[in-house]
Amino acid sequence: MTALALGAVVLVGSCGTQTATRQGPPSPSNAVDSEAQAIRKETYAFYDSWTGGRSGQTAAEVLIVHDTNGPLSECLNRAGYDVTWERGISGTTFMDGLNASRWLRDPLSRRYTWMAVMDAFSARVEDRQMHDKRVPDDVVDSCLRSSRPIGDEGVLKTSLPPVQQRLMADWDARITEAVASVAGDREGYETCVLDGDLPEAFAEPEDTEELLDAIDAAMPPVEEVPLGDEEPSPNWQKWLDVEEQLLEVEWTCAEPVYSDAMRQLPRVIDEFAADHEDEIAELVAHWQRVKSDARALGWTEDRPFLSSTLEGWVNPETEYPPALDEVAAP
Asked: Which among 32, 36, 180, 244 could bridge 330 via Cys, Cβ 3.0 to 4.6 Å?
């Protein structure tokens, strides 16, 4: 949970991960096993069923922002300023159910571009939704004293309850073990990437941390990252070329084991579901309640941001920011 002071108005938004715009049709240089990609889709569906998925996490954000910004908004309204609590809704939380293993990175997605657009999206939302200089500072300060922030404990109770935290840790451990049985450990993947034909812009990184720093430095600043139909800058196209070479290196390392690694997942799902049947049922009920409570505030799955002004940046078919798997690899 973060409190952002922008202009004269302070509104609170829950921590979220925004997603990116599609860069083109998926056409990786190496064919990807369709059965493996079908397993990926099924795995995400199972994982989302008890972690809330994109719609559940957005509904949770609506509740969190309302509980935090509701009293502030009411106070500002009484003072004669039309500032709605919905301005604090910044996007959706993305939980990658396969993030525990580097070998399982989706070869059809531009994950680094996704991270760049995530940062740009957050910056735009922050500027557009929460920038309001109409309200004098003394009025804001007075209303802030009367607000009742939900606090970190309240945020986690809604968006990441304790039972879910425990299950996510067990899930990650099982995924890691299952994949390692056919692909090896994470260090093997990272060594392979570091030894690959990396872009010249990355020099010769000594370790993964140096590589990540080089990737971050190569990304254009947020103001040059296009969202929706915005025209890309020359720097952005240069970045896409660099990323394409990086993705080729990563896929060269993962491709020999990717399909076998993905085929371990159905067994993991079956065993996990059997071992945690009661806890999963508890979490499914939790997310149903979260969505029901959010609907009482005007939220719906096809109108996730209520009155937020995100036109032009979200997927027009879903009203959500496009998902990670919509950021296509070269």
From this structure: 244
- Determine the Cα–Cα distance for residues 86 and 162; give it in Å rounded to an integer: 27
Enter the tokens of residue 32: 């990807």
For residues 208 and 304, which has the higher predicted lDDT (pLDDT)? 208
Distances in Å between the alpha carbon of 330 and those of 33, 108, 139, 325?
16, 8, 51, 13
Length of the chain: 330
- Which tens digits make up the pLDDT trace of 155-174? 788 889 999 999 999 999 99
Each residue of 250-293: pLDDT tens digit?
999 999 999 999 999 999 999 999 999 999 999 999 999 999 99
What burial class does residue 102 get, using C-beta atoms within 10 Å of its C-beta: 0-12 exposed, 13-18 middle, 19+ buried? buried
Work out the widest C-alpha separation in the chain, in whole angstroms.
Answer: 64
Phi/psi for 4 (5° steps) reads: -115, 125
SS (H, E, C) 30-95: CCCCHHHHHHHHHHHHHHHHHHCHHHHHHHHHHHHHHHHHHHHHHHHHHCCCCCCHHHHCCCCCCC
Residues 6+ positions from 36 with CB-CB distance below 8 Å: 258, 259, 262, 263
**Helices H, strands E: what count in the chain?**
11, 2
pLDDT per position as a tens digit, 96-145: 899 999 999 988 888 888 888 778 877 776 665 555 557 788 888 888 87
What pLDDT sits at residue 203?
Answer: 75
Each residue's pLDDT tens digit, 235-244: 999 999 999 9
- DSSP string for 211-265: HHHHHHHHSPPGGGS--TTPPPPHHHHHHHHHHHHHHHHHHHHHHHHHHHHHTTH
3-state secondary structure of 3: strand
Q: Reduced to 3 states, what is the DSSP secondary structure of residue 117?
A: helix
